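Exam review. A common question shows you a sequence with its structure tokens and asks you to describe the fold in words. Practice with the pair below. Do the first one on your own.
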Amino acid sequence: MAALLLPMGCATVPGNAPEPKTASSAPLLTRFHLTGRLAADDGEHRFATAFSWSHTPSRAELSLFSPTGQTLARLTLEDGNATLATAEGERHETDAATLLEPLLGFAPPPLPALTAWVQGDPGPVPDRIERDESGRPYRVWHSGWIVTFDSWQDARPRRLTIERGAARLVLLIDGWSSEP
């Protein structure tokens, strides 16, 4: 876990200064599949798991795995409904955050913003952006969340740290595909 916490330098864009030229980033995908690892910490509880996330315009599915590869939970979003399947059964809600909060220990970031962040985009209407020397987002403030793009692989983020108060979510993305 210590390797996940290595910081990286950044360049700040002052309020009235023009933003540096943006690096050529990959366009936002409406269909993708990614795999990786995540760690959640709320200051009292810690949770770490491997994950798989498939996303299309009409459906998203997030699976969380045990260290041995067994599925711990599967969150499915479709037709405005969220379903969380675990060993204890299924729960249904209209809001995915309500289902994920008990697993993470805190309410997760909004899905539209998270979908943009994992693709290296500052997301919808960020409050503030700091960019790195290449013009890519380094740190983004969005509705109380602070997202740090800790490392990149090609045009996509490799590691992100997402924080709000004591809540901290670290995503390490291992694999990307443009097809879910």
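Now try the second one, then compare your answer with the model answer below.
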Amino acid sequence: MSLITPDFGLLFWMTLIFVILFFILAKVGFPVITGMVSQRQDRINDSIRLAKEAEERVRELSSEQARMIEEARKEQAAILRDAASARDAMVSRAQEQAREEAAKIIEQARIQIAAEKETALRDIRREVASLSVSIAEQVVRKDLSDNEAQMALIDRLMDEMSSTKMN
């Protein structure tokens, strides 16, 4: 027997064992192997499907996030507009109140000035009247030093009073 060329019997037995082993593997081993490969393929397909679903969900969440950010920006702009209009209204009210207060103060000052002017005019009139009476008294004393002048003045005053009462 040589190592390089096998005998016919050896080839027969090797072929027979190979066919039996292949038949056993075909009946028992290959279905298990193909079942495992099929399960693995199903898991891979499920994983791919889940990954696509997750990717789609991420896209949806991303668009939802963008929409929410845009809504938040719009809401922020509206809040800022409202705050600005409230600020402007408050400033406007404060300015109007300041104008009203200034007008009241000016009017009070005018009234007070008019009252002080009237008081000053009354005081001046009193002073003028007092001075006039004093001057008239001194003039009358000087002019009426004799009795005839006094009697003439009295008659003239009586005539004037009687003529004013009749009118």
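Model answer, second protein: Residues 8-166 form one domain. DSSP finds two helices and no strands in the chain. Full marks require stating both points clearly.
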